[in-house]
Specification:
Oligomer: single chain
Number of helices: 6
Distance between the termini: 29 Å
Helix content: 10-25%
CATH topology: Metallo-beta-lactamase, Chain A
Number of domains: 1
CATH superfamily: Ribonuclease Z/Hydroxyacylglutathione hydrolase-like
Strand order of the largest sheet: 7-5-4-3-2-1-15
Mean pLDDT: 95
Radius of gyration: 17 Å
Largest sheet: 7 strands, mixed
Order of helices and strands: EEEHEHEEHEEEEEEHEHEHE
Strand content: 25-35%
């Protein structure tokens, strides 16, 4: 890994759920994800769901999304990035593969971003990278995540414009340093939760995994779900918040294993 980073800075973290699949009190929701992250004295808007609803909820929750130091897009799916059309400016971090034209295999439905790379570059200071990027000491965008396990990212229901399989190589995450270890925030987890956490440890040079939250892209109680639970137990991960695209059977398995509960709009994770 050629990128050199400054030393990690252990930060106080606060994550506010602006959009997740489950609504909260006095807030609305849609299928998608958006988190407001306060890390030390910096703020990050992580994903922006489908519409401007994340902004409406943010206003109700006392969050000024336009003040974000960084906007991070986890991957190029409509339910994570189409809300970009409703922001005026900002520094946007993503993998360059986010702009691919992509479709659902079974019905050819366009599931990519509504805005082109050119349209996004006209509004934002775009930093598109496949390699890890340190946003500031203690905060890392992981770039392209190596797929190393034999039970994750083995099949895909998506195709690219040329008809080839789309394994969402642009799927990335945030890794944040705390005094207790690394806290990881995922969008959909297409790369696989274990692949993601192993790479987070490598990039941050911290083998302690403190927590993980976001979409896990686990639907059923199958080998992938069970191996993920086993890994989280073996690594003594303290805070586990599966949400968004995590199916109800898998969610029940995480509840039984860790007491994990569904995140709702307006929930605040204070670490």
């Amino acid at each position: 890994m050629a990128v050199l980073f400054m030393h990690n800075k252990a930060m106080k973290l606060k994550v506010t759920v602006l959009i997740d699949n489950a609504p909260g009190v006095s807030t609305k929701t849609e299928f998608g994800l958006s988190y407001w992250i306060e890390a030390g004295d910096r703020s990050i808007l992580f994903d922006v769901a489908q519409t401007d609803l994340f902004m409406e909820n943010a206003t109700k929750l006392g969050v000024d999304v336009q003040s974000a130091n960084f906007i991070v897009l986890s991957h190029g799916h409509f339910d994570h990035g189409n809300g970009l059309a409703h922001l005026n400016s900002g520094t946007l971090i993503c993998h360059p593969g986010c702009f691919a034209r992509r479709y659902r295999k079974n019905d050819s439905w366009n599931i990519g971003l509504s805005m082109s790379r050119q349209e996004i570059e006209a509004k934002f200071n775009l930093m598109a990278t496949e390699t890890p990027l340190q946003l500031f000491p203690g905060a890392y965008f992981l770039g392209q995540i190596p797929r190393i396990t034999d039970f994750e990212s083995q099949t895909t229901p998506y195709v690219l414009e040329d008809g080839s399989p789309d394994f969402l190589l642009d799927d990335s995450v945030l890794a944040l340093a705390t005094q207790h270890g690394v806290f990881v925030i995922t969008g959909c987890g297409h790369s696989g939760v274990v692949n993601i956490l192993e790479y987070a440890k490598k990039v941050t040079r911290d083998s302690r995994l403190y927590g993980v939250m976001g979409g896990f892209h686990l639907k059923e109680i199958n080998r992938q779900t069970l191996e993920t639970i086993r890994y989280l137990k073996e690594n003594d991960v303290k805070h586990i918040f599966p949400s968004h695209c995590t199916g109800l059977p898998a969610m029940s398995a995480f509840y039984n294993a860790f007491g994990s509960k569904q995140l709702r709009v307006g929930d605040i994770i204070d670490l």
